[in-house]
Amino acid sequence: MSGWFTKSGPMQDVVISSRVRLARNFKSLPFPTSENIKSAEESISIVKKAVDSVKNLNFKVIDLGSLPQLDQEYLVEIHMMSTDMVGKKIPTALVIKEGNENLAVMVNEEDHLRIQSLMPGLQLEDAYKQCLEFEGIAEFQPKYAFSHEIGYLTSCPTNTGTGLRASAMVHLPALEKTDKMESLIDQCRKMGVAVRGFHGENTKSLGSCYQISNQVTMGFTEHEIISGIDNLIKNIIQLEREARETLRSKFGITFDDMIFRAYGILTNARMLTSEEALRLLSELKLGIDLGMFAEYDTTDIIALMSNVQPASLQKISGKILSPGERDILRANIIREKLKSKTE
User: 274: pLDDT confidence band, cut at 50, 70 and 90?
Assistant: First the structure.
């Protein structure tokens, strides 16, 4: 699976990816938070029937229970499903579209359907349109739990209404290094916007990457939510770009030294932990985005940031690896990839 993270997108110096997610439930079944095995199987059956009705769209239903845990962890690392889906006790499934690795639908996560599209760079509107292709399947329409007063009904009240979450994964090393992240997070919270870590809710930032998304889904249209997040992200892009220029002009050789030290370690280290690799790749990406390494593209670094995570490494190697073995392989992959660009 090459993945969305191997493609380039607009404003990718700051925005790693865009994601739009729609939550939908079936009115005839209990929501997954109180679902039993029988009703969970029924919701998967509804999905399979709907997918069969539109075979020309090339949707494929994958039984997650039949996938090894490593494969499930890999899907989490590339953000195609949530950590809550790994090892879930009720039957679960993932719907993908063959030939389109941007779209993934989680079946029986917190809601019966979590329809999401991931795209490189800032492309929220396009991601939303891709979600609608699955959400709009005619077979689903009379089955959705919907209220004309409040909108789509969901397991968590914060998703009720449009059921839409629009988010962007942003790379903010300069705002971190200039101690402006705390203020930014506080401002976002006051606006009803969530700032989360690398893998979403209850996770920490890694490699200076944050997920920024709306918290309110009721009282606004889908396009108002997407437009609001899009405008906010564009403001954050401007703040980050200004902070980068400030860092470089203020610290000069010290700033350059930080970038070249990261490059030196990445191209020579024989062992790298996941957290250290992400930190160093983040610093190298910062240098590349400021034009310091013409031979590299920011997409190369984004792909590496995904490929050197634990499950991804083991998928590449084709076997289970100990932490130490992963550290060795991680360093080898990064070193070879970076050196191949200069040969």
Answer: very high
- Is the C-alpha dihedral spanning 7, 11, 12, 13 positive or negative? positive
Say what angle helices 323-340 and 298-307 make with each other, to 10 degrees: 160
Helix and strand numbers, DSSP H then E, in the chain? 10, 10
Mean pLDDT value of segment 178-196: 93
Q: Where are the alpha helices (DSSP H) in the chain?
A: 37-52, 69-77, 124-135, 173-177, 181-190, 222-266, 274-289, 298-307, 310-317, 323-340
The answer to which of 16-30, 94-108, 195-209 has the lowest mean pLDDT is 195-209
Rounded distance between C-alpha atoms, residue 124 and residue 165, angstroms: 10
Q: Domain segments of the chain: what residues?
A: 246-340
Phi-psi region of 291 (alpha: psi -120 to 50; beta: other; left: phi over 0): left
Q: How many whole angstroms separate alpha carbon 76 and alpha carbon 146?
A: 29
> Is the torsion defined by CA of 78, 84, 87, 88 positive or negative?
negative
Dihedral sign, Cα of residue 121, residue 122, residue 123, residue 127:
positive
More confident: 342 or 166? 166
The alpha carbon of 86 is separated from its chain's Cα centroid by a whole number of angstroms, namely 16
Please name the residues in contact with 319: beta carbons below 8 A apart, sequence gap of 6 or more.
none
pTM for the model stands at 0.91
The confidence score (pLDDT) of residue 197 equals 79
Asked if 51 and 171 count as a contact pair (C-beta separation under 8 A), the reply is no
pLDDT over threshold 90, residue 101:
no
Give the whole-angstrom CA distance, residue 140 versus residue 181: 42
At 333 the three-state DSSP class reads helix
Question: 1: which 2 tokens?
Answer: 């699976």
Q: Which residues pair with 59 in a beta bridge?
A: 97
Q: Is the pLDDT of residue 52 over 50?
A: yes
Asked whether residue 202 carries a pLDDT value surpassing 60, the answer given is no
Give the count of alpha carbons within 13 A of 70, CB side only.
Answer: 12
DSSP 224-266: HHHHHHHHHHHHHHHHHHHHHHHHHHHHHHHHHHHHHHHHHHH
Q: In this predicted structure, what is the pLDDT of residue 1?
A: 45
